[in-house]
Model the fold of this input.
Amino acid sequence: MTSTIAPPSPAGALSPARRWAILAVILAAEVLDLIDATLTNLAAPTITAALRGGPSLVQWLGASYALALGVLLVVGGRLGDKLGRRRVFLTGLAGFTAASVVCGLAVGPAMLITARLVQGAFGALLIPQGFGILGAVFPRDQIGRAFSAFGPVLGLSAVGGPILAAALIDTDPFGLGWRAMFLINIVLGGAALLAAHRLLPRDTGDRTVAIDTTGSLLLAGAMSTLLYGLIDGSAHDWRPGAWVALVAGAVFFTLFARRQTTAANPLIQPSLFRNRGFVSGLVLGIAFFAAVAGLLYVVSLFLQGGLGYPPLRTALAGSAPMAAGIVIASIACYRLIGKLGRTLVLIGLLTTLTGTLGLWAAVHTQATATSPATIVPAVLVIGLGMGTCFGTVYDITLGDVTPAEAGSGSGSLTAVQQLANALGAAAVTTVYFHNSARPAQAMTTSLLIVVGVTLLCCCLVRLLPRAAQPQHH
Done:
């Protein structure tokens, strides 16, 4: 995301203790976003059964959050530049916490999905401000140490988040069940909000920063109609309304693409689309992130619906090993990307492919008798492959963009990842629910879709830049 250069004065004016306290606040916001983005992967069957929402609610639970977050992420970054990062961060955190409460109090599917959309929208205000705030308060010689804290903290959250969500469902504190996963944000979000209000330095922003509202609305229209078409089509046997929505989505997306070439301040700089390496990485990222986002959902659906696992066992057998693999590989890739370049992306894709085929073979041969002894190693390998790609795809994609394009390129790739998560969750679960009466067949078909997409991604690797920019981080 493009950002104005923060004034250097706060870094010298703040004590070291306050700087590290500010880092803790930023990390807390990132953790809240990560947990709330992923907890519905695990909790969707429980929530759907409680609210009697059917398969479409399962699909919308994750997709709605990722949709709002992805559409508005670049806009959120620009608003921070324009209005001041502190103000936008506090607004985002307050709104995110309030929306979490509404999620926890939802009495029906429509109320919950609306609250998830609002939660994602405020998350898009919250998340982009963190790096800018830290860049303003930490001296240059310490900023690397500050940023290095993100990997371990978010890694632990990725592993611990599903386990916490599952434990809250299984232990049913105060009779709240799944609602406790959202209502706990009253405490977590409230504490972070009080600390942020007290600690974050004031900044004025730059009122001359322009925001392409028309482009944002066209992107929102494209993504929401595409998602509606996918989800409604799978839920109602592809009635005409679903096809109309898909066509409308294609029209909106065409108008959005045209807008990027004519707007004075486009969300994505048009010159990036003339860069073969960037476009290849963008397409590869959309395909891969969509496939694995759907995979995360169907693993949870199969373990709970097909094998009858309760949420906590699902977390321990599926979500936690996969998250552990992501964390291990992400840390390892930090040191390897400089040596291996785009070859590391191929290694990640092939590792994901190996784990997915291993899981497919287990389910194909054992069906609903598949044991944790075969599931855990397979999902751990999938996680290792995902983490290798998460840590490298976009760094490599930005390998030969110009410094002037880097901000727009980075921000658009982050947003596209969220939009791919939304599309993938909807598309792969559509395949799963088509055969949901036969869980083993639904699972093997879904896994083959992921295998096919991953193979296509392998073919795109040779079009990527050979290496990441050494200074990009």
About this structure: Confidence is low (pLDDT under 50) at residues 1-10.
